[in-house]
Amino acid sequence: MKKLFMATALGAIIAGTAGAESQSDSVKIGVILGYTGPIESLTPHMADSAELAMKEISDSGKFLGGKTLEPVRADSTCVDAAAATAAAERLITSDNVAAIMGADCSGVTGAVLANAAVPNGVVMVSPSATSPALSTAEDNGLFFRTSPSDARQGEVLAEILADRGVKSVAVTYTNNDYGKGLADSFISSFEAAGGTVTISAAHEDGKADYSAEIGALASAGGDLLAVFGYADQGGKGIIQGATDTGAFDTFLLGDGMYADALLADLGDVLEGSFGAAPWSQGEGADKFAEISAAGGVNGESVYTRESYDAAALIGLAMAKGGNADRATVAANILDVANAPGEPILPGELGKALDILAEGGEIDYVGATGVELIGPGEAAGTYREYKIEGGAYETVSFR
């Protein structure tokens, strides 16, 4: 489909590489995430994890004859498409990055892709932009993601409710591409399984008072309230208002609501609530936990594994192609991400570089069991959790 390189797409990519390859020993990689905005408590851990992979590649001394990867951070804000696009354009034109790790939230990711990345032939690997709409975005083979689409998350959340015998829910979602996409996916799956959605209502982030929204949700009723928002913004405000008024006492939480900061503030009222977030288990996840702890990085936050994997894929694609330019990343990322080849786990990036230097093949498994399918996105697994004793407790993986 859209990952097949047409001659015109290749021409655009090659044209966009002008000046991208530096004679310096440092190769710049953009790290564009919402350091301000509704997920600002999550993004420092995501950035640290991506930079952990870059440091591992650089410290090996085996990357393209001793070059290093230099992260350059830029603020996507998560919600302001114009600001995110301007930040990405600075990365591309002023900082001359070879690729971008990011963006994070779906709306700004789509804007950066269309307005900055595609026109300049720059690959983006997002760790957390999950809108189903991005699966069919016109990207000239330049967009990849290490997190699964919300088309899958909606199914998982509906399955969790079915297993718990929940028959009716009210739904509130943040009024953007991410929130609407997840809500639509969930509602479709839940209703197909026989469930009833009493109301589906958007909420705006950044409000001081959500009493009107809570009133509408309470009037509609339901066994519980599904919250598809952000832990640092409107989603948190909705939960606080709902519990203050007694409208709801149990919540189904989407991935944007998974945050230690939310538990620190509302852990008591969230007791007994549950949800899901992209997560991994197995040898790769265990190895990531080891190296992140050793590197002083909070690897237990959401989307940290995906961020490490996104950055690793960029570096390994360059190594596979033997060059640090933009076209090389685009041409090689699927090759290093998928079989066949020697499986590569976190902490083994130096080993991967050795194999590639000798002309061998690698299959980057990483922290999340990377396998890029269809239009360059991850199949992924989800961690079902419940909130018990003020902490996230794993129920199962799906």
Separation, N- and C-terminal Cα atoms: 27 Å
Low-confidence residue ranges: 1-23
**CATH third-level topology of the largest domain:** Rossmann fold
Decide which structural class fits the backbone.
alpha/beta
**Morphology:** globular
Instruction: Tell how many strands the DSSP assignment holds.
Output: 16
Proportion of β residues? Answer: 15-25%
Give the biggest beta sheet.
7 strands, mixed
Order of helices and strands: HEHEHEHEEHEHEHEHEHEHHHEHEEEEE
pLDDT averaged residue by residue: 93
Indicate the CATH architecture of the largest domain: 3-Layer(aba) Sandwich
Helix content: 40-55%
Spatial strand sequence of the major β-sheet: 7-6-8-9-10-15-16
CATH class assignment of the largest domain: Alpha Beta
Total count of helical runs of at least 4 residues: 13
The gyration radius over C-alpha positions equals: 21 Å
- CATH homologous superfamily of the largest domain - what is it? Response regulator
Query: How many domains, in number, for the residues?
Result: 2
